[in-house]
Amino acid sequence: MTSRDKKKRAGEILDILEKRLEGATIALHSTNPLELLIATILSAQCTDKRVNEVTPPLFKRFREAKHYARADPTLLEEMIRPTGFYKNKAKAIIGCCAKIVSDFDGAVPSTLQVLTTLPGVGRKTANVVLGNAFGQNAIAVDTHVKRVAHRLGMTGESKPDKVESDLQNLIPRHRWTQTSLLLILHGRHTCKARKPQCDSCAVRGLCDYFEKAARNGSG
């Protein structure tokens, strides 16, 4: 398949998913870039639903980066305990916000290069914030995006940064942020890790994984 064909197929897949998942938005609740940054850090190896249960009292108590930077680690750990790995997450949040205060006057940076210098912030977290809080074009590669993109034949890579690069090359820039949201939702509800629901998949006719399974007699 040529590069042009791959881009055309990717566009068709996204068109179908947009119709099937109309109004797809990020599941994490937030009202500003700082809240989304904190919520995304907390979402590591935790469900968005659980994070959304934890963040309301957290956001009420800690309204600015300086409040997190000065937080009592024990208190913060207790407040975020349900999200798991709470000691590491608390340390990352305090360190991240301390740098935001000291280096950026308390404002969350709005570029990938700078965001990824913050403690606890990798490319995925940075792209989530850029795409959903700052309205920039960004592809956030989490486990769902990685798995679904691979099954659909959009990438053959396993490293998130390379998956991101492949998707950027396939998909028009203005669709990047929405692409992440669509692939995440499709991965959660249909293209599940252990048992993909191929029978009810709207894009199975364009899917490498389904084609191979059908060819092998298991589709």
Could you describe the 3D structure shown?
The protein is mainly α. It has 2 domains: 3-25 and 139-213, Endonuclease Iii, domain 2; 33-132, Endonuclease III, domain 1 (Orthogonal Bundle). The model has no long low-confidence stretch (mean pLDDT 96). It has 12 helices and no strands.
How do the helices and strands line up, and which of them pair or pack?
Blueprint: H1 3-20, H2 33-42, H3 48-61, H4 65-69, H5 73-80, H6 86-104, H7 112-115, H8 123-132, H9 143-151, H10 160-170, H11 176-189, H12 208-215
Helix pairs in contact: 2-8, 5-6, 9-11
What is the H-and-E element order?
HHHHHHHHHHHH
Question: Based on helices, strands and strand pairing, what is the structural class?
Answer: mainly alpha
Rg: 19 Å
The CATH superfamily of the largest domain is: Hypothetical protein, domain 2
Bin the helical content.
Answer: 55-70%
The CATH topology of the largest domain is what?
A: Endonuclease III, domain 1
Largest sheet: none
Level-2 CATH architecture of the largest domain: Orthogonal Bundle
Q: Kindly, what is the distance between the CA atoms of the first and last residues, rounded to a whole number of angstroms?
A: 22 Å
Brief summary of the model shown:
Helices cover 59% and strands 0% of the residues. It has 219 residues and is an all-alpha fold.
